[in-house]
Amino acid sequence: MSACLFIGLMSGTSLDGVDGVLARITPQGQMQVLAHAFTPFDAPFREALLALNVSGPDEIHRGALSANAIARHYARVAHDLLEQTGQVAASIDAIGAHGQTVRHRPLEFDGDEQHPAVGYTIQLINASLLAELTGIDVVADFRNRDLAAGGQGAPLVPAFHQGVFGQAGACVATMNIGGISNISVLQADGGVKGWDCGPGNALMDFWCQTHTGQPFDRDGAWAASGQVHAGLLARLLSEEFLRRTPPKSTGRDLFNPVWLAQHLGAFAGLATADVQATLTEFTAQACAMDVKRFAAEAHSLIVCGGGALNGHLMRRLSELLPGVAVVSSEQRGLPALQVEAAAFAWLAFKTLRRETASLQSVTGARGARVLGAIYPR
């Protein structure tokens, strides 16, 4: 059986836009990325998605239209990838489409004495429309099967990280710092653990957008110009989620502007650059804390996602983790902004082969499951 072609499409909690890759995957699961494309979300659409992270009027209507818009953004990236590589839709085995997470509340709300709670996770994507627009089979809805089996539904990428970054006989940690940060611990014996650490770029980006008009703090330069406020940092680090033992997952349901405002209320008058410095330090310390607690044997930390491009954040991680080599995933062969999209191409590959892709050791589910639903072209 020859290698197959898959497209992976990912829009994360950073809400910056859609990353996509076109990859060749061998029957053994080895991957070669052939092209990468990105399309941004404009400010009004970003605000519309952000508003869906909390309850509001006419949510079903707004969510449905946003799912259609997400599909159109995804289709644009898919067409860009085909144009870059000279491929046609018929040559692509499937698209793996994550969708846009707007709520993530696993294992909550609906349990009783006879039935454990399942909760819910919502990734907006009209996968049928995406299949119609591209003429390619679409695999979507990756998280709900794990929830149904009693898991967190997240993170889903540790098994992929093991295949790409794992090293026989050595423990390696991989940290994706998108809107939320998550870690994969790739153990020397082949075991894998993974969980969400806490905030990634979400709070930093919100503060930067609000006070500078820029979508993110390029290279962390604004944060580096400020001073960390010890009192505010201690208040942020007191968040109960950070003390939980894995498996655990989170999202903008928790780490959002309302949460931040509640903590900032006791610190009126802080310089905006000092708040940015403190938020960046908060992300760095939350990530480093989980490495120290649960991955102390790791000799290196491979960082991907937008956080890998924040030089100030990367320096703080290095300083907080002496003895651990903190490097960008690009130094390990896969650019930081391609990793998650590549993971969903791989997840689609696993779905078509009816192979399990979730890990009980990561999500806490009753066992590994085949993930995703297939929407034929």
Can you describe this structure?
- By secondary structure, this protein is of the alpha/beta class.
- It folds into two domains: 4-154 and 338-375, Nucleotidyltransferase, domain 5; 158-332, ATPase, nucleotide binding domain (Nucleotidyltransferase, domain 5, 2-Layer Sandwich).
- 37% of the residues lie in helices and 21% in strands.
- It contains 13 helices and 13 strands.
- The strands form three sheets. It has a six-stranded mixed beta sheet. It has a five-stranded mixed beta sheet with strand order 10-9-8-11-12, with helices on both faces.
- A hairpin with a 2-residue loop joins β8 (172-177) and β9.
- α2 runs parallel beside α3.
- The longest helix has 27 residues, at 59-85.
- It is globular, with a radius of gyration of 20 Å.
- The two termini are 23 Å apart.
- The model has no long low-confidence stretch (mean pLDDT 97).
Compact overview of the structure:
The chain is α/β, with parallel strands linked by helices. Helices cover 37% and strands 21% of the residues. Helix 2 (59-85) packs parallel to helix 3 (127-134), helix 6 (202-212) packs antiparallel against helix 10 (272-294) and helix 8 packs across helix 10.
